[in-house]
Amino acid sequence: MDEFKNPDNLDDILGQARQMDEGAMGQLVKHYYPTVLRFLSYRARNREDAEDLTSEVFVRMVGSIKNQTGNFPAWLFKIARNLLIDYYRKMDRQKSSSLDEIEDDSITVSTEDHREGFMAGEIKHMLTVLTESQAEVISLRFLNGHTLEETAQIMHNSVGAVKILQFRAVAGLKQYLKKDIGA
Q: Which residues of the chain have pLDDT under 70?
């Protein structure tokens, strides 16, 4: 959607959405739904849970958009992140699902997302070898394409802290892949 490339257009759409304009809210949902779903798909146990969580993100967006300020995508992903935390608390789990519980067909990985080298299940499994924070940084930065600044806002961290987490996560993945492929 080209209207989101121009920050002024996004501001106009957000202004209309804050006035509870259904068309503007529909545009926001249509534009951000795929990226929010992708973020949650790599962290939830299965596709259905990710879809439910994504729907809840947008229900909460509609319920609180009147008071939204600051970076809209970062705000939206904060909602998603908080729902994901609640999701894992309800499951009484600290780590992501094991490989046995992952539905490999639950995520479509396209080449335009620059992840063509790995299957979705492999990516989910690789995220389980990282700490929660490291996995979140990898998901936000590389799977969803957020900037360092947006990632820092979503995670309530400084840009420097995100850089350190990202460095450690990439190093951990490199080490894991070396062991896994025997290189």
A: 1-7, 92-120, 180-183
Element (H, E) at 94: none
Asked whether the beta carbons of 118 and 77 are under 8 A apart, the reply is no
pLDDT of residue 109: 37
**For residue 71, which amino acid is it?**
N
pLDDT on residue 179: 78
Helix (H, G, I), strand (E, B) or coil at 8: helix
Q: Which domain holds residue 87?
A: 2-181
Rounded CA-CA distance 11/27 in Å is 12
Element (H, E) at 160: helix 159-181
Contact 19, 45 (CB under 8 A): no
pLDDT given at position 112? 40
Provide the domain count of the chain.
Answer: 1
Residue 110 and residue 141 in contact, taking contact as beta carbons nearer than 8 Å: no
Q: What would the two tokens of residue 160 be?
A: 């420097």
b vs e for 85-114, b when ≥16 Cβ sit within 10 Å of the residue's Cβ? eebbeeeeeeebbeeeebeeebbebeeeee
pTM for this predicted structure: 0.62
